[in-house]
Every structure is written in C-alpha cells, then in structure tokens.
C-alpha cells in the first residue's frame, strides 16, 4: 500500500486530505511543520509527499532542497 506524507499547516485542509486518502485505503502520515516533515522522512519511506510551500519551521521549498541533499536527487514525488 502506498504511503503518503501530507505537510499542511491549515488543520482543516490537512484533516480533509487525510480523511479522503484513508477512505481510499492509503497509509498516511501528516504534520503541520517543515522540520517535522524532514524528521518523518528520516524514519519512514514515502511514495508521495503532498507539501505546502508556506509552512512553519522550514518552508516547502527548503524541505525539497534538504531532501535533494539527503538523497542526491528527488526520489519523492512532490505536489
């Protein structure tokens, strides 16, 4: 089963996305913060990351840059 990380600081939006994806039988993790998102990528493997750009901690662009440094390339799909 594909695993998806949702990174969105608007709680209502995040909950709606999580609820929809879990109804479709996807495994999800979610957070409202870029630094927490990076931490989750260290302990979990994701097939897809839904990443807001304007989030606390570390913005979405910086999260992408850090993941690129960590992996040497984008091994994730970002939307």
**Terminal residue distance:** 19 Å
Encode the helix/strand succession as letters: EHEHEH
Q: Please compute the radius of gyration using only Cα atoms.
A: 12 Å
Q: What spatial order of strands do you see in the largest sheet? A: 2-1-3
Strand elements, count: 3
Broad structural category: alpha/beta
Short account of what is shown:
The protein is of the alpha/beta class and 79 residues long. The protein has three helices and three strands; from the N terminus they run E-H-E-H-E-H. Strand 1 (3-7), helix 1 (11-23) and strand 2 (27-31) form a beta-alpha-beta unit.
Q: Can you lay out the helices and strands and say which pair or pack?
A:
Blueprint: E1 3-7, H1 11-23, E2 27-31, H2 34-43, E3 48-51, H3 60-71
Parallel strand pairs: 1-2, 1-3
Helix pairs in contact: 2-3
Kindly list the characteristics that best describe this protein:
44% helix, three-stranded parallel β-sheet, alpha/beta, 79 residues
What does this entry look like structurally?
The protein is of the alpha/beta class. The chain is built from three helices and three strands. It has helices at about 10-25, 35-45, 60-70; strands spanning about 5, 25-30, 50. It has a three-stranded parallel sheet with strand order 2-1-3, sandwiched between helices. Helix 1 links the parallel strand 1 and strand 2 (about 25-30). The protein is globular. The mean pLDDT is about 90.
